[in-house]
Structure prediction request, 279 residues.
Amino acid sequence: MVAGKHSLVVAETGIHAQSSRSHCIFTITMLSETDGEIRSSCIRLCDLAGCERARSTHNIGTRMKESRAINSESKLTRLLGSGLSGSRGEAVSMVVTLNPAPQYAQETKHVLSLAAVAQDIQINNTAMFASAYETTQDTTVSNNSTEVVKLRADNELLHFELVQAQHRNKELLAAMEEKLEDSANTMREMVEEAKDMTKQYYESQIDALKSEVSQTSLYIQNTMREMMEEAKDMTKQYYESQIDALKSETAPPAAVTGTPTRFLQTKIAYLMTEIAVLE
Prediction:
């Protein structure tokens, strides 16, 4: 049943999010032998189609084509023919589901009418038994039927195992893809983290270099300022010594009276101007 469920086709309509788009039929055939007699029993579970009125379901395109094909040469009629005719002693039970919503009252009435008609159907249940000792041909046919049923059961089991394996493979593939995605995300996070760390490292290096350059520049400026002040002082001292020397040269002896020459006075004035500029 699990394998068959994987083959079920559903689609969304205007009144059902998972509407069955195909008759889902599970068939179980059983053979039992008692006192030389072989009894064949068959159980069929059928998921019949519901209301397919386009006005309610709003079906268009593919959904509309499916609705039109529901009762067109239906194989379901042939599969349930023996049970409905009573020729094989099969009992028939029908379960009806309803939608309590007021807007679907007309569909509910239609379904209840169908159920009432189905309830009045009279079935003459007459079980059919086959003797294992009637003829050699009947025995051979019975044995072949048993073998066919067994082979079908084995085939269904293999199909079920195949579906289970495919389902498991899908789960493993999904898990593997999820792990790969997680690994890719982790790798991206590690790369981004490495980028951030590298960026922070170089930014710290740049800040350190900027600080060092700033300190060096400040040191150079202070040194240049000190050197300029020292040069000014030395120049000032030089000019002052020159002035003193000139003054001593122009000073007359104690016994001599007179004034310094104009050239010396001009030179002294020039040196005094230079000293004033330096200050």
Remarks:
- The mean pLDDT is 74.
- The domain at 2-129 is CATH 3.40.850.10 (Kinesin).
